[in-house]
Amino acid sequence: MQKSTIQFLLINCLLALVLVSCGSVTKNYTPKKLDKTSYQVPYFTDSKTDYVYKANITVYGHEMSGIFIAKKINDTTHRIVFTTEFGNKLLDFEIAEKTFKVNSIVSELDRKILINTLTEDFRLLLKSDYLIQEQFENESDNIYKSADGNRDNYLFISKNGSKLEKVVNASKTKEKITLLFSSENNIFAEKIQIIHQNIKLKIELNYFKSE
Taking residues 173-189, what's their average pLDDT? Predict the structure, then answer.
């Protein structure tokens, strides 16, 4: 990744947010009696596993690619490393539920708004435990609502297979971030997409199969 390309992506990241108008997240779903009060996400939970993915980040139509590595280092914290495909480290974070630490980051990416956005994305991706307050359903999923500060998270669990397929982070009226999971066994997610609704940022992770 050339320095000028990274800088151009950063400029786009710093553009004013484009808000998307929409109604309540649950307006098309049917309320349902709670069948559980907590949920544990099955992904990224094994401390013995290095979760390695090929990463593609699209920002305002411009793309950058590399390798994404996540490792659970204790009961509350994951370490995230993002490198170029040639192995040059771009960033190294430690992320917990309430805190994060920047171990290293290249100067081209060292911008507060970018760090905060990626931290929010990765924290949501790695969140493992949810307390459930409400439940809904549609034709294919049971949908669990869990409070997350000033927002809520909605977990979409398939009725066929009980797999976590989607997490939507939303305010009271707008969806903010959507995570999509593709998993064959509901233990390991082979493909993950992180899609922002209010900025043109998309992160796609595909499981890295070493040759």
Answer: 91
